[in-house]
């Protein structure tokens, strides 16, 4: 008699949770996502999708939707000093003969991930408040009084994960000393702005990033400035466009021109954390920011969540209820070291970007290191790596 099909519950319907659902469905695994919000949604900001995740979304047949809703960053990244002097050659993204990088509006990405999932696979208005597990399975409790049973639970409930303490003592957030101002500007207000390139300006203690999203209709900007001001971690607060413009006064006139167009902006306190010592306990595994919150200086939080999701789905394929905890440990083993390297890389990139670099040779060497790191990052194929491991675990 064949064993009953594995039932997976995903807590959290953000980019990590929804990609997990999509990847599990593709592998023929039964999944239900429980999201606390009354409907799926994302903040009005950009997210840069890099080749290490785009290749997986394409394999899951989301390539055409990404190309339609995203803004292709076909010319890679260009770095400048604060006065606008270019500091390094453009990083092309085809280091392995494969080229794919998109600036996306976060809401567009979430809609693409949700599209095509069975309607009953996503249950909104379900805030998970706790769980219990034993050898037979997991029991989830929600604040609306409902409950659910599953063989495996994936906690994709973000940086302030409710389920993380069921796996490991949470690591303490440490304020990085910087905040990020973010917003979107309609491109018709800056018609001369170049398309297809992500641009980053660096100065002492600050850096400024701009890339297009929504098929080039909007420009996404992020201004990183030193500040001890704090928001609750991962929460944003309305910012003052005048204060933002003042922080970058005297920088490249292109930035001053862009900031003159900002009507509303939001800021986030940026926190750093040490990697967690483990991501799994029995039938529960952490994924995305719940497993590995990181600084945004490599633009990898969401991209790494997508890598997690595809690796997890491969490793759960063909696994029965009894084998599930072992498959989750294999997922953790496969992913934890790479992600810790990315977390450290994001920290190092933040230091690079915020350096004034009076010594030009040192600066060029640092940027070359950063470009080499990105090649390592982008060339990775999380699905292929998981497939190579799958028969052995
Ligand atoms: C300034 C800034 C810029 C960034 N830029 C990039 C970038 O360019 N590229 C990139 O890859 N990453 C970027 N990131 C990081 C990225 O935003 C996160 O890593 C990513 O959103 C994590 O996805 P997630 O699904 O793990 O968590 P989240 O996006 O936080 O989603 C968690 C979901 O779980 C739900 N939830 C929470 N608690 C519960 C509960 N108890 N029960 C049910 N549901 C619950 C939430 O409502 C939410 O929908 C950036 C971050 C910042 C701050």
Automatic annotation (TrEMBL):
UniProt KW keywords: FAD, Flavoprotein, Monooxygenase, Oxidoreductase
Superkingdom, natural source: Bacteria
Q: Which InterPro entries match?
A: FAD-bd, FAD-dep_Monooxygenase_BioMet, FAD/NAD-bd_sf
Names of the cofactor(s) = FAD
Q: Where is the FAD-binding domain?
A: 7-344
Q: Which GO terms describe its molecular function?
A: FAD binding; monooxygenase activity
Segments traversing the membrane: none
Return the protein name. Putative salicylate hydroxylase
